[in-house]
Design brief:
alpha/beta, Quinone Oxidoreductase, Chain A, domain 1, 8 helices, DUF2855, DUF2855 family protein
Length: about 375
C-alpha cells in the first residue's frame, strides 16, 4: 500500500474588493512537496501600512489583484511585503530553508514558479504574472542582499517598498528640475512615503518644502524636521503664492486638489499625483485650472535610471539612501517610528480594517508575525 503523501494546512486571508475593511480566512490542505519547477514558501512575517490599502484600492485599475488571483470575483488577495522561507523546492539553485524578501499574498504558504534564478534571487515566472509590472515579481535572497541585516527586518518590510517610491520620486523631480518650481507642497505629509521623499530632498538649495497635514498630525510632521514649514489643510490659504509651486499629492483628496489649484493659480507649475488610500476612482478629470495632474509610477523612473546608470548603480544608490533613512528613522531620539508587532491572521484582519478606516497613527509601524 502506497504511503500517504504529507500535507500542509494552509491559511489564506482574502479581502472583499469593494469593502476593504471586510476580510475572511480560508483554510485548505495541500501537498507539502513542490512540483518540478515550483517552490513552496512559508510566509514568516510582513508589514501592514496604508500602502497595502492603496494596492487594494487600486487593485483593478493598476492590476494589483492580478498578482495573486483567488478565482473568486468578489474577493482579492491583498499583496504585502515581507519575508518567507522555502519549505520545499523543485528548482535547481533554490534550497529548502533559504529566506527571501518580496511581494507576497497574505497566506501561511504559497507556491511560485521561479525563473531567471541567480545568486541574487529569482523572478516569479508564472504565466499570469508575465504581463504585470516586473518590479513586483522579483524576490531577493537575503543572504546575498547588500541591504539586508537580520535586526532590520521589520524596518525593511515597513520602509523599503515605500522608500523606493520616495527615493525614485525625489530623483524624478530632480531629474526634471522640479518643472521650474521653487516650492514643493506635499499633502499627507505625515505618511511614510511623503516624509521619505522629503528626507531625500531636505538638503537641496533653492527648494522650499511645505508639508500639508491634519491638525491631529501637525506636531508629528513638525517634529520630523524634513519640511521647512508645516500647515494644516485649513491653513492652505496662508501659503504664499509668490514662487513657482509644485504640488505632490499623496492624499488623492479631490476637494483638496481643487483648493490647491484655485489658491496657487498661475504659480502652480506641476501637479504630481503619487497615490491615495481614500480615492479609489483613480485620476478623474476635474477640469481644474492650471496643469493637469500627472500620475507618478515609480517603476517608470526605475526603468529610466536602469538605462541611464545601470541596475547595479541604481541598487547601490538606493541601498545607501535607504540605510541612511532607516538609521535615522529607527533612532529613538528622533521619535519617528514606534514598532507595533502583532501575531497571526486574526490580528492582521483587525489591523487591515483599522487601516482601511484611516485610523493608523503616523508614528506607528505595524508588522505581523505569522507563526
Amino acid at each position: 500500500m502506497a504511503a500517504t503523501e504529507p500535507t500542509l494546512a494552509i491559511t489564506r486571508l482574502f479581502s472583499r474588493k469593494d469593502a476593504l475593511n471586510e476580510s475572511r480566512l480560508e483554510a485548505a490542505h495541500e501537498p507539502a512537496s513542490a512540483a518540478p519547477g515550483e517552490v513552496l514558501l512559508r510566509l514568516d512575517r510582513f508589514a501592514l501600512t496604508t500602502n497595502n490599502i492603496t494596492y487594494a484600492a487600486f487593485g483593478k485599475a493598476m492590476q494589483y489583484w492580478d498578482f495573486f488571483p483567488t478565482g473568486q470575483p468578489q474577493w482579492g488577495h491583498m499583496p504585502v511585503w515581507g519575508f518567507a522561507d522555502v519549505v520545499a523546492s523543485g528548482v535547481d539553485g533554490i534550497a529548502p530553508g533559504e529566506r527571501f524578501y518580496g511581494y507576497f499574498p497574505i497566506a501561511s504558504h504559497f507556491r511560485m514558479q521561479p525563473g531567471r534564478v541567480t545568486a541574487r534571487g529569482f523572478y516569479d515566472a508564472a504565466a499570469h504574472r508575465a504581463k504585470l509590472t516586473s518590479a513586483y515579481n522579483q524576490y531577493t535572497r537575503v543572504q546575498n542582499d547588500a541591504a539586508y541585516a537580520p535586526e532590520l527586518e521589520h524596518y525593511q518590510m515597513l520602509y523599503r517598498p515605500l522608500f523606493i517610491t520616495s527615493f525614485m520620486l525625489a530623483d524624478f523631480l530632480e531629474d526634471n528640475r522640479f518643472f521650474g518650481a521653487r516650492r514643493l507642497v506635499v499633502s499627507s505629509a505625515s505618511s511614510k512615503t511623503a516624509y521619505g521623499t522629503a528626507f531625500c530632498l531636505r538638503d537641496l538649495d533653492g527648494i522650499a518644502l511645505t508639508g500639508l497635514t491634519s491638525a491631529r498630525n501637525r506636531a508629528f510632521v513638525e517634529d520630523l524636521g524634513c519640511y521647512g514649514s508645516t500647515v494644516t489643510y485649513d491653513e492652505l490659504a496662508s501659503v504664499p503664492v509668490d514662487e513657482p509651486t509644485l504640488y505632490v499629492d499623496f492624499s488623492g483628496d479631490e476637494s483638496l486638489r481643487a483648493r490647491v489649484h484655485a489658491h496657487f493659480g498661475d504659480s502652480l507649475v506641476y501637479d504630481c499625483f503619487v497615490g491615495s488610500t481614500q480615492n479609489t476612482g483613480f485620476l478623474r478629470d476635474l477640469h481644474l485650472p492650471g496643469p493637469r495632474p500627472e500620475f507618478y509610477f515609480a517603476p517608470v523612473q526605475i526603468r529610466k535610471r536602469n538605462a541611464d546608470w545601470g541596475p547595479q548603480e541604481v541598487n547601490r544608490r538606493f541601498n545607501a539612501a535607504q540605510r541612511r533613512f532607516i538609521d535615522h528613522a529607527r533612532d529613538p531620539a528622533k521619535r519617528w517610528l514606534a514598532l507595533v508587532e502583532e501575531r497571526g491572521f486574526e490580528a492582521a484582519q483587525a489591523r487591515i480594517a483599522r487601516l482601511a478606516a484611516g485610523s493608523g497613527a503616523p508614528q506607528e509601524g505595524y508588522v505581523v508575525v505569522v507563526g
